[in-house]
């Protein structure tokens, strides 16, 4: 019976798929490494200032996973505001499909991770009520009004301007529907014209 337990895959706390190639969770522990291996991750976005544990770094190295660390404080007393520039930097990594499949995590996978996913949803042109509802659902009873305010006030215009070379646009859902956008695309379908006689 003990041998069978070795093959049980355990997802990190608060794990879920944001969409194809993008996942979110709480901090992965060694017992989650088997599960994470099945995702074929290329990258991890880590949103805490603390150093990444050695055991986790070894797992990343063994699986050729790149770590992007954005040290965002998670203090509640006194409350630490979300740093807009750091969130923008993390979004640049997140929307670059060359980094996918990618996992986003902080400690609990609720607040910092929720803010980043909320900002991604705004880039994807989700309606604000759906963005905020998704944040609250994942944060549970510990949702924070200041996080909702940050997501609501987040301006995607600066991100769109600086990411045109790597940002993907969605044409429906599904992995094959993502594509890289190079420069501003103004693809216009020519209007049919009557032949001149």
From TrEMBL:
It catalyses: 5-diphospho-1D-myo-inositol 1,2,3,4,6-pentakisphosphate + H2O = 1D-myo-inositol hexakisphosphate + phosphate + H(+); 1,5-bis(diphospho)-1D-myo-inositol 2,3,4,6-tetrakisphosphate + H2O = 1-diphospho-1D-myo-inositol 2,3,4,5,6-pentakisphosphate + phosphate + 2 H(+); 6-diphospho-1D-myo-inositol pentakisphosphate + H2O = 1D-myo-inositol hexakisphosphate + phosphate + H(+); 3,5-bis(diphospho)-1D-myo-inositol 1,2,4,6-tetrakisphosphate + H2O = 3-diphospho-1D-myo-inositol 1,2,4,5,6-pentakisphosphate + phosphate + 2 H(+). It is an enzyme of class 3 (hydrolase). This is diphosphoinositol-polyphosphate diphosphatase. PANTHER family: TYROSINE-PROTEIN PHOSPHATASE, TYROSINE-PROTEIN PHOSPHATASE DSP3. Residues 85-117 form the Tyrosine specific protein phosphatases domain. Belongs to the protein-tyrosine phosphatase family. Atypical dual-specificity phosphatase Siw14-like subfamily. Its EC number is 3.6.1.52. Pfam families: Y_phosphatase2 (PF03162). PROSITE patterns: TYR_PHOSPHATASE_1, TYR_PHOSPHATASE_2, TYR_PHOSPHATASE_DUAL. Residues 14-163 form the Tyrosine-protein phosphatase domain. Keywords: Hydrolase. It comes from the Eukaryota. GO terms for molecular function: inositol-1,5-bisdiphosphate-2,3,4,6-tetrakisphosphate 5-diphosphatase activity; inositol-5-diphosphate-1,2,3,4,6-pentakisphosphate diphosphatase activity; phosphatase activity. One of its GO terms (cellular component) is cytoplasm. The keyword Phosphoprotein does not apply.
């Amino acid at each position: 019976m003990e041998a069978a337990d070795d093959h049980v895959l355990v997802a990190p706390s608060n794990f879920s798929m944001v969409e194809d190639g993008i996942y979110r969770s709480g901090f992965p522990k060694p017992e989650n490494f088997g599960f994470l291996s099945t995702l074929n991750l290329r990258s991890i976005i880590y949103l805490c200032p603390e150093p990444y544990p050695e055991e986790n770094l070894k797992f990343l190295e063994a699986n050729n996973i790149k770590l992007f660390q954005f040290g965002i404080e998670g203090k509640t007393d006194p409350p630490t505001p979300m740093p807009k520039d750091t969130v923008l930097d993390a979004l640049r990594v997140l929307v670059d499909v060359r980094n996918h499949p990618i996992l986003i995590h902080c400690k609990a996978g609720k607040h910092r991770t929720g803010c980043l996913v909320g900002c991604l949803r705004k880039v994807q042109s989700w309606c604000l009520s759906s963005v905020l509802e998704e944040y609250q659902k994942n944060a549970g009873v510990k949702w924070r009004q200041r996080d909702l305010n940050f997501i609501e006030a987040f301006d995607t215009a600066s991100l769109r301007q600086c990411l045109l070379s790597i940002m993907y646009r969605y044409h429906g859902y599904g992995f094959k529907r993502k594509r890289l956008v190079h420069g501003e695309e103004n693809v216009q379908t020519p209007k049919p014209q009557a032949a001149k006689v």
